[in-house]
Design a protein that fits this description.
- The protein is α+β, with helices and mostly antiparallel strands and 428 residues long.
- α4 packs parallel to α9, α5 packs antiparallel against α7 and α11 runs antiparallel to α12.
- The longest helix is centred in the N-terminal third of the chain and has 19 residues.
- The N and C termini lie far apart (65 Å).
- The N terminus is likely disordered.
Length: 428
């Protein structure tokens, strides 16, 4: 019986071929899936966050599928639809990303279109105005979302505007949006779109020998833009305190707590800390959910995550809880009490066992499709981890002990340093 992709997940590194193709790196993972290839890729754009480039980048990316100088949006859509292919683009902080799928026989043409959209988009005035209207509507929806408002307020306590994890106020973003012009978008594309750290992962019915020439044909000659990095790599937290975003009329209050972390994704303490956070509030069996929701009945939702931690910049420990405005103080006190108990006493052996099983299982499930494989390959390459890490990761998770997890929590989780941000109806 042939092995499935999940069954062979622990031998990924031996099956991955990495090559230089044109101006970028390509990682290819052949799979037993017939005729279909999934792709995932990105390049470094280096937006200047303090100057508001994240907004400009988002609008620029939103126009990439609206036509090129060779094909209008209808020709692009027809090319993809007639072949059952997909391409999409996303703004990912420091990077511009793309993903899609195609039949093996159509992959050269889809890669040609991808390169054309990235290198020579139309950036039409009418489409720009439509995109701006849509972005304004999304900002206005976020203005009415208590969770979004609390999360953004917390970020402004922990980071300066130049950090990728900083979120400006919606009012500031709307003002920037109103002042943004098509000329700004075209200038951003000229300065920040190029083959800087271009990475492309392919998974499916394909091999590196045939894919490399296709990528060379599509992306050959695409130069690096050369824009320098312009972001803060470290947090700059204020003195721990409280931020409030009054939103009268809301039934619930979202409370977000957090403090900056010094851990990066490549650091030894990351995995045990990731496990600690998962045990505390990573799913419905987490400590916070069991205590604050199930036992005390104070919330419908509570969680804990390591937020915005990458190999390139710092992030923060982030806890979120939704409470009725009548029980904010009670819910906040119960949450903090459970957090302090966890940091002081640590997890039980059974909790560590369950967390290891859950995280390894989730990782393997993510490798069960060609899209998941391509995404995992790409992320690993962007982090500049060796390909063998794809095989090592489950074992490294499984090797974490109760002492490892508790030690990391004690070193990096400091309840007394938590900032608090609240959004909703704040007065009874």
């Amino acid at each position: 019986m042939p092995q499935t992709e999940t069954e062979t997940a622990l031998t990924l590194a031996a099956r991955v071929e990495e090559r230089t193709a044109g101006p970028g790196r390509v990682l290819v993972l052949p799979t037993p899936v017939q005729s279909v290839v999934a792709l995932r890729g990105s390049f470094l754009a280096h937006p200047d966050f303090a100057a508001g480039d994240e907004l400009v980048q988002a609008l620029t990316v939103g126009l990439l599928d609206k036509g090129t100088r060779r094909r209008d949006r209808f020709a692009v859509a027809e090319l993809l639809e007639n072949r059952g292919a997909e391409l999409a683009f996303v703004s990912e902080g420091l990077r511009v990303g793309f993903h899609g799928r195609a039949l093996r026989e159509d992959l050269p043409l889809v890669l040609e279109l991808l390169a054309e959209q990235l290198r020579d988009p139309l950036l039409d005035a009418g489409e720009f105005e439509k995109a701006r209207v849509q972005y304004r509507a999304s900002l206005q929806r976020a203005m009415e979302n208590t969770r979004s408002q609390a999360s953004a307020a917390l970020s402004r306590r922990l980071y300066r505007p130049a950090h990728p994890n900083f979120t400006p106020s919606i009012e500031e973003s709307l003002d920037r949006l109103d002042r943004l012009t098509l000329a700004d978008v075209r200038a951003y594309h000229e300065r920040h779109f190029g083959a800087d750290d271009l990475v492309l992962a392919l998974a499916g019915d394909v091999d590196a020998g045939e894919a490399a020439p296709w990528l060379e044909d599509a992306f050959g000659g695409w130069a690096a833009h050369g824009a320098e990095a312009a972001f803060d790599a470290d947090a700059a937290p204020q003195t721990p305190g409280r931020a409030e975003v009054p939103m009268p009329g809301k039934r619930n209050v979202d409370v977000h707590l957090g403090h900056a972390l010094e851990v990066r994704r490549q650091d030894d303490d990351y995995l045990p800390l990731y496990l600690a956070c998962h045990i505390l509030g990573g799913n419905f069996s987490g400590r916070l959910m069991s205590r604050v929701r199930d036992e005390l009945g104070l919330t419908y939702g509570i969680y804990a995550v390591l937020d915005g931690v990458t190999t390139e910049h710092s992030g923060h420990w982030h806890l979120g809880v939704t409470l009725s405005h009548e029980r904010v103080d009670e819910g906040l006190a119960a949450t903090l009490a459970e957090v302090r108990r966890f940091v002081e006493d640590g997890p039980t052996p059974a909790e560590v066992d369950d967390a290891r099983t859950n995280l390894v299982g989730s990782f393997k499930v993510g490798l069960a499709t060609t899209g998941g494989l391509a995404a995992t390959l790409h992320l690993n390459a962007v982090r500049r981890f060796p390909t063998r890490y794809l095989d090592d990761y489950p074992a490294e998770i499984g090797a974490q002990t109760q002492e490892d997890v508790h030690g990391a929590a004690r070193r990096h989780f400091h309840p007394e340093r938590l900032h608090t941000a609240l959004a909703g109806t704040l007065e009874a």
